[in-house]
Amino acid sequence: MARNANEVRRLSDLPKWFDLSKYKNASTLDHAGWYKNLCARKNALKLLNSTSFKQMLQKDSQNENMKGIMSGLKSIRNTPVFSDSSFKGKSPWLFHAPIYTEFGVQQMTVYDLYFAGSRIEEAKQKYARIVIAAAGDGEDYYNALLWTEQEKEWKTNPMDDVLSASLIKVNLKLPENMLVEQFRAYLKKLNGKAKKVEKLEFDKWIKFGVLPYLDLKIWELESGETIINRVMADAIFPSGEGGEDAVRKTTAKLAKELLTNEHLDKFAEIAGAI
User: What are the E-state strand segments in the chain?
Assistant: First the structure.
């Protein structure tokens, strides 16, 4: 089998910033700490997987947003296990995590709508922007609806799977008792679909090197390199532990699972209750 020219086959070929000893403080993370550390990694992976972000980075790497994101990545690499305080003041594109100490019911903000829009599939976001941008102009709005007629199905359906902070509409003209009854029915419907999330196992995530694995996967996207499993195992596990099979069968699956909205929502819920 031909060797991929971009394969990383030696530990010495990994980026100089990577050092497994930097992750030793992972044992001090609580639910909120894991939540924010994982959110930053998910945001980085999403950005580096985005075609529009790659184009923007190539076109104008000195843009303030681009500089902030790359500075944020450097910050994570210098201190890969970070606290709430080091989370503040960083690029909101990278270090955004939904607030987990909110009232159960509150008014939506423009910022809420912005991040709600970011959850729409990237290929469909341009249609959503056309409709939203034209909402204040009757003629443009009519044209926008015509332009997006082929996307009618997604336009009238819920935008994504319900998260713990679901965006809903409430008809305030209805009687209060009817609203309460319908909201209870809505919650019952959601709870019926809810899946059980297994007990959070911080020690397991540390043992199988989830955070260093994610940081090296982010680097793969950024650099265009591919780290073979043998080298990944040598990088994220202490000497004599783990192995290629552990990377493929456990670490990769754990990392993917922990970055799902379902699991991140669970962290947020637990952190808010503590």
Answer: 7-8, 226-227
Sketch the domain layout of the chain as residue ranges.
29-97+198-273
Report whether 50 contacts 118 (CB < 8 A): no
Closest to 111 in 3D by CA, of 95, 92, 129, 134: 92
Dihedral angle sign, alpha carbons of residues 238, 242, 244, 249: negative
Q: Give backbone dihedrals phi and psi of 7, rounded to 5 degrees, phi first.
A: -80, 140
Instruction: Report residue 219's pLDDT band, with 50, 70 and 90 as the boundaries.
Output: very high
Beta-bridge mates of residue 7: 226
Three-state DSSP class for residue 8: strand
Tell me the sheet residues that pair with 226. 7
Q: How far apart are CA 118 and CA 114, in angstroms?
A: 7
Calculate the average pLDDT of the chain.
Answer: 79
For the chain, what percent of residues have pLDDT higher than 70? 65
Q: Which residues contact 83 (CB under 8 A, 6 or more apart)?
A: 33
DSSP H helical segments within 97-201, as ranges?
A: 110-117, 122-133, 138-147, 152-156, 176-193
Give the whole-angstrom CA distance, residue 210 versus residue 256.
Answer: 9
Per DSSP, the three-state class of 227 is strand
Give how far the C-alpha of residue 60 lies from the chain's centroid of Cα atoms, to the nearest Å: 24
Nearest-Å Rg of the Cα atoms of the chain is: 22
> Which of 97, 111, 94, 112 minimizes the C-alpha distance to 53?
94
The residues that bridge with 8 in the sheet, in sequence order, are 227
DSSP character at residue 226? E
What tokens does 19 get?
């050092």
pTM, two decimals, is 0.66
**Token pair recorded at residue 54:** 């790659």
